[in-house]
């Protein structure tokens, strides 16, 4: 995702959720979003074995 795409996504998500992002926080929110996007790519790229099933409920 390019910087322009991340900015557009952040603007759209912010508007949709009604969650304003103050101008003085915008750069930090975009930086955090970039890190989270990279982490999500790593997670999505990890292929689970076929025998793994999702737990219906997590009970610690």
Would you kindly provide a written description of the structure presented here, covering whatever features stand out?
This protein is an all-alpha fold. The chain has a domain at 1-28. The chain is built from two helices and no strands. The protein has helices spanning 3-17, 26-45. The mean pLDDT is 90.
Features:
mainly alpha
Write the layout of secondary structure elements.
Elements: H1 3-17, H2 26-45
Strand coverage percent: under 5%
Count, helices: 2
* Shape summary: elongated
Radius of gyration equals 16 Å
- Quaternary organisation of the protein chains: single chain
Mean pLDDT: 90
Q: What's the helical proportion of residues?
A: 55-70%
How many β strands by DSSP? 0
Give the termini separation. 35 Å
Q: What about the largest sheet?
A: none
Contiguous uncertain segments of 5+ residues? none
Q: Which structural category do the helix and sheet elements fall into?
A: mainly alpha
The SSE order reads HH
